Amino acid sequence: MKKIRLFKPSVGMEELNNIKNVFKKSWLGYGPLVKNFEEKFAKFIGTKYAVGVNSGTAALHLSILSHNFKKGKKILVPAITFGATAAAVLYCGLKPKFIDINPNNLTLDFEDVKRKYSKDCVAIICVHMGGHPCQMEKILPWAKKKKLLVIEDCAETCGAIYKGRKLGTWSDISCFSFEEKKIITTGDGGMICLNNKDKFKKLKSLSFHGWDIDPWQRHKASFGKKNYFTKHWNYDIKNLGYKYNMNDLMAAIGIAQLKKINILNKKRSKILKKYLIGIKNCKNIKPVYPYALKNSSYWLFSIKTKYRDELINFMKLKNISTAVHFVPLPLNNIYKKYNKNLKNAMKVWKNIVSLPFFPDLENKKINYIINCINQFDKKINKFKNYENI
Predict the structure, then answer these.
(1) Are residues 350 and 208 in the same domain?
(2) How many domains does the chain have?
(3) The pLDDT of residue 242
(4) CB of 159 within 8 A of CB of 259?
(5) Cα–Cα distances in Å, from 227 out to 118, 218, 223, 224?
(6) What's the domain range around 231?
(7) Is the separation of the CB atoms in 122 and 146 below 8 Å?
């Protein structure tokens, strides 16, 4: 079997044709397609507004920054997540307070959230880890009583419905990632979704140098017989902003991706079902998440085994790519000083491994991966390390 990638974007002629149209118009930067994509995405998620940015990291950073929290305040963050979740907190001069995870699904342990809350906490970031929903029905009312800003980190899901509501609509503000291997992609990119008009305007400004007008608006104002306004070139820098904007090339890809997102999510669910059926008889290997396939949008298929490192090496020999999502953030040097009482995270991460998972993963490769997993499971009881397998 040829090498099987861990992730692969599902792109085709629709995306390519959209890119060609951008080239034909010779407007590659911040233009009309960004607004078009923002409006379409907001409608898809179910919020009033959306702000396109160049990464999920930028989305998190601006979402926190736009609330002007006092330096040194704390934000509740899950111990197991991608580094950008906590980095965005530090960017704003705030401190992450790491919360232990529920060992059954790797999302925030709500009981630990309540234990670690203190009056200097100003927000909580709910990461739908691997696409599995946090317990928003419990977290949201509690957070509102504590007057905490609630941010959904939806980098690993897009389009899922949890208890009748789209993920990304439970919170005050939500952040999505369109990085190359995510649910949908724009190459790199991200989106901020919200319902607050004033915050929307501020986020638009922050995403492009703090300007009060974007380049496309300036361009449009420079033409027209009835346009007697001569200072279309002028702008006011209202905020200390960043060069975080999305561009029309990214938006062109995103518009094509959004049209097929429901199909892509259904494909993911079908692959998950095959995996779950295929490994159900394994004695030493079990799914990490309690996968709920209806109306789902999972980014990862992860399994757990106390023989993780042996499995990883075994799969290497079989030309199957694997990864670990993720090492607990407090084990990284920059976050070590924030490591307090994270028993579940420190134990669980040692046993988890992610398998190849993307919409266009062929059946023959899925079956091959399942066969290899079962082969390993049967032999692990007889051999103590991968060199003997």
Answers:
(1) no
(2) 2
(3) 98
(4) no
(5) 55, 12, 7, 5
(6) 13-259
(7) no
CA 275 vs CA 169, 286, 307, 309: distances in Å: 30, 11, 19, 20
Q: Is residue 224 predicted with pLDDT exceeding 80?
A: no
Show the tokens assigned to 6: 């861990």
Q: What is the CATH number of the domain that holds 21?
A: 3.40.640.10
3-state secondary structure of 141: helix
Residues 241 and 274 occupy one common structural domain: no
Looking up tokens 């007697």 gives: 228
**pTM exceeds 0.90:** yes
Query: What is the C-alpha separation between 240 and 209, in angstroms, rounded?
Result: 7
Mean pLDDT confidence for 310-330: 98
Is pLDDT of 384 > 70?
no
Residue type, 176: F
Chain-centroid distance, C-alpha 208:
22
CA–CA dist 108, 125 (Å, integer): 9
Interval 82-91: pLDDT, tens:
999 999 999 9
> Which sign does the torsion angle of CA 143, 148, 149, 151 carry?
negative
Quick one: pLDDT at residue 219? 80
Q: Crossing angle of helices 308-317/363-380, nearest 10°?
A: 130
Q: Could you tell me the pLDDT band of residue 215, with boundaries at 50, 70 and 90?
A: confident
Are 229 and 291 within one domain?
Answer: no
End-to-end Cα, the chain, rounded Å: 18
Token pair of 130 as six digits:
């691997």
Whether 39 and 50 have beta carbons less than 8 Å apart is answered as: yes
C-alpha to C-alpha distance for 73 and 21, rounded to whole angstroms = 47
Q: Which of 233, 259, 285 is the last residue of a domain?
A: 259
74 - beta bridge partners? 95, 121
Last residue of a domain, one of 259, 287, 302: 259
Q: Is 278 exposed, middle or buried (0-12, 13-18, 19+ CB in 10 A)?
A: middle
**Rounded Cα distance, 386 and 316, in Å:** 11
279 and 220 in a single domain? The answer is no
Residues 80 and 193 in one domain: yes
Amino acid occupying residue 321: S
CA distance 239 to 208: 10
